[in-house]
Amino acid sequence: MKKRITIVPGDGIGKEVTTCGKNVLDHIAQAFGHEFEYDYASIGHEAIEATGEALPEESLATMRKADAILFGAVGHPKYDNDPTLKVRPEQGLLKMRKELGLYANLRPIKLFDELLGASSIKPEVLRGADILFFRELTGDVYFGERGRKDDGNTAYDTMIYHRYEVERIAHKAFKAAQTRRKKVTSVDKANVLESSRLWRAVVQEVAAEYPDVEVEHMFVDAAAMKLIQNPRSFDVVVTGNLFGDILTDEASQIAGSMGMLASASVGDSVGLYEPIHGSAHDITGKGLANPLASILSAALLLDISFGLKEESECVIRAVAQALKDGYRTRDIADKDTPSDKILGTEAMGNQICKNIRMLAAVDSE
Ligand code: NAD
Question: Whole-prediction pTM value?
Answer without folding.
Answer: 0.89
